[in-house]
Amino acid sequence: MIRDGYLARWRGREYPASPDVNEVRLYRTDPDDGFTEVRPGRYVRVVPVAEVEDLVYVRTTCLWQGEPFIVLAQHENWLRVEYTGGRWPVAQAMGLEVFEFGVYQGWAPAAEVSELREHRV
Known about the structure:
Helices cover about 5% and strands about 60% of the residues.
């Protein structure tokens, strides 16, 4: 599973999360007590930040063609990647899209990436 975003541990369980100043929104894909359905397959519960046991940001990284990337998403056998090497000639040679100034993204075949790692900050 490719993860990129906040995770909160609440009551011993880890949830995808969205922190605010005094509250944290916890998300699930199935119903549970205290969680409200906001759309099909998406449930949310807002808890005070003081009740959250741990809050981290998770980022998945990899190497593709020997260059460093952040993995943003996965679709079937492809990974949506963002180049972190900071060298325009390399990004251009790899055929990456200019997402915005200095940000280069593309789709990499999952079988071609190496050193896939999840980092918690």
